[in-house]
Design a protein that fits this description.
The structure holds two protein chains of two kinds.
Chain A (H helix, E strand, L loop, with lengths): L1 H23 L27 H14 L19
Chain B lengths: L3 H11 L4 H19 L2 E4 L3 H13 L11 E5 L26 H8 L3 E6 L33 H8 L5 E6 L5 H7 L2 E4 L19 E6 L2 H11 L30 E4 L1 H5 L3 H16 L3 E4 L8 H16 L12 H4 L2 H16 L6 H21 L2 E5 L14 H5 L6 H6 L2 E10 L2 E9 L4 H14 L3 E2 L1
Parallel strand pairs in B: 2-3, 2-4, 7-8, 7-9, 10-12
Antiparallel strand pairs in B: 1-3, 4-6, 5-6, 5-10, 9-11, 10-11
Classes of the chains: A mainly alpha, B alpha/beta.
């Protein structure tokens, strides 16, 4: 059933791709546009670091939601099951 | 018409209504109506305490911020510290945000009270409000029909007066579409005007956070609060802070050029178009000059959009791989989310010689060029928001029919321009929204036209 669902969804996903190819036939070639604005702020100014109190608070909140921790309270990361 | 938010603010500022009382009323209304409407996924248990803190601040003689204790709903894909940001998906059902998104920080600074988290289509993938893992949202303005999506909870919450204002997100029409179906006001800002930091992306080059409100004043006010550069973001426009509400009083559109396109009526239900035509007449009566414009490739925007958004969504969801953090997205998501992921993967794998994604980006350039050329001739473009009426909840419709809801809203996202929706009228009791699109950073003109229309509108009924 799950496989059937995946196949059906895959088919419908491919259909829209093919319908786009047809729709785009004959349209003029333009320069590709990745973002509608080209004002990138890639060199960001160094901001003021957050206060140590704020960092401590954030750490507390983060510890509450992190999946696993070691005895020192550090985030424990596991390798995914599918990685051999 | 359109005085709800201003009247509430006057009450809050004069002390006639206290912030605590406002929040309590909203919570009572949510508790009463939410079991049927399902506009909220979670209520903020700290809302009353936040309102009490505001009251203490006022008692100390300090001035209230611009939002002065209004109750604000936040879409579930925006991080609010201490509340779940699930994107209405099982993937993130246990994720409690550890920080506030930049827009939420700005709302709090202006004394908005976060009342809760609004329902939405799963990961904003949908136009009906039916794909949420927490159940579909009903439309208070047209019961048993879809409220539109993906900001379904926000649209429905405002239509049912469960809170004062909401923040939604719009990637291909997700604010404007529910605003139209629910008979409320929504604004999709210019791309880059509002910070996206703290938003869980659908399509990073298209998403914008924007307001949903009962009236144009409310939308303008919330936009004013959230708009403006954030130093920490890479793709933002560097524009000075603007006041939008100051320019709304006595909004006059005499002599403004309003564009209409014959392509809109070609793809729109005649009953919907009838309401829109009457709205255009109302604009003419207000002194606007109606000008015909051509948008010949508007229909190609839809397939191009679905290619671009699928590739961006596929990329953004790769972090939800289930490594003990959330659940692996493909294992628990709904059909539409899976469809977009698989489509994105398919395109990414097959992309060679620019056949798909690169070509879609070229079509995007074409659409933008066409809209920009039209907006050089006119101040705004008006037309329908959604080409058809909302279907009944649970009714099975094809994928193509579902995507068709977005035909008229997608072009603004591809071009990065702004657009707003105000109620134009009704067909058999179902609301129909008038869409007003403006140039890049043309929010002022868009809001002016919306406000002028709202002030004289008695809403057409067909």
């Amino acid at each position: 059933m799950a496989e059937e669902r995946q196949k059906e969804i895959e088919r419908s996903a491919e259909e829209i791709v093919e319908s786009f190819v047809k729709a785009a036939e004959g349209l003029p070639s333009e320069r590709e546009m990745y973002y509608s604005q080209e004002a990138y702020n890639v060199v960001r100014p160094d901001g003021k670091p957050s206060s140590s109190e704020e960092r401590t608070e954030f750490r507390k909140r983060f510890i509450k939601i992190m999946p696993a921790k070691d005895e020192d309270g550090n985030l424990r990361v596991e390798v995914a099951k599918w990685v051999k | 018409m359109g005085e709800v938010t201003k009247a509430k603010l006057d009450q809050l500022r004069s002390g006639e209504l206290s912030p605590v009382e406002n929040v309590r009323r909203a919570l009572e209304r949510i508790s009463k109506l939410n079991p049927k409407i399902n506009a909220f996924i979670e209520v903020n248990n700290g809302a009353v305490a936040q309102a009490e803190a505001l009251e203490r601040k006022l008692k100390r003689g300090k001035r209230a911020g611009k939002l002065a204790g209004l109750a604000i709903g936040i879409k579930s894909n925006i991080n609010v510290n201490g509340l779940r940001a699930t994107c209405a998906s099982r993937t993130l059902e246990d994720y409690v945000a550890a920080y506030d998104a930049e827009v939420v920080k700005r709302v709090l600074v202006e004394d908005g009270i976060i009342i809760g988290v609004n329902n939405m289509d799963e990961f904003a993938c949908g136009s009906s409000g039916e794909t949420s893992a927490f159940g579909a949202t009903d439309n208070p303005a047209a019961p048993s029909r879809i409220p539109g999506g993906s900001s379904s909870g926000g649209g429905a919450a405002i239509a049912a007066a469960m809170c004062d204002l909401c923040l939604g997100t719009d990637t291909g029409g997700s604010i404007r579409n529910p605003a139209s179906h629910c008979g409320v006001v929504g604004v999709k800002p210019t791309y880059g005007l509002v910070p996206r930091q703290g938003l869980i992306d659908l399509g990073m080059s298209l998403d914008q956070i924007g307001p949903i409100a009962p009236d144009v004043y409310g939308a303008a006010l919330l936009l004013e609060v959230i708009a403006g550069k954030n130093q920490n973001e890479c793709v933002m426009l560097d524009v000075p802070k603007t006041s939008y509400i100051d320019k709304l009083d006595g909004a006059d559109i005499k002599g403004m050029k309003v564009g209409i396109s014959p392509q809109f009526s070609e793809i729109t239900d005649p009953a919907v178009m009838n309401v829109i035509d009457k709205s255009i007449e109302a604009l003419r009566d207000l002194g606007a000059e109606i000008v015909d414009i051509e948008l010949p490739h508007i229909e190609e925007a839809l397939p191009a959009y679905y290619l671009i958004v699928s590739v961006e969504f596929f990329s953004t969801t790769r972090k939800f791989d289930g490594r003990k953090y959330g659940k692996r997205i493909e294992d628990v998501c709904g059909d539409e989310v899976l469809r977009r992921i698989l489509r994105g993967r398919y395109i990414s794998q097959k992309e060679y010689r620019g056949k798909y994604y690169q070509r879609a980006l070229q079509v995007r350039t074409l659409i933008r060029r066409e809209l920009m050329a039209a907006l050089e001739k006119v101040d705004v473009i008006v037309g329908p928001t959604v080409p058809k009426l909302p279907h009944k909840l649970g009714e099975k419709i094809s994928v193509d029919a579902m995507y068709a809801y977005d035909y008229l809203t997608i072009p603004a996202n591809l071009a990065g321009i702004c657009g707003g929706v105000v109620k134009a009228g009704e067909v058999n009791g179902i609301p129909v929204g008038l869409q007003v699109q403006g140039m890049v950073l043309g929010e002022e003109q868009v809001l002016r036209v919306m406000r002028a229309f709202e002030a004289v509108s008695s809403t057409t009924t067909v």
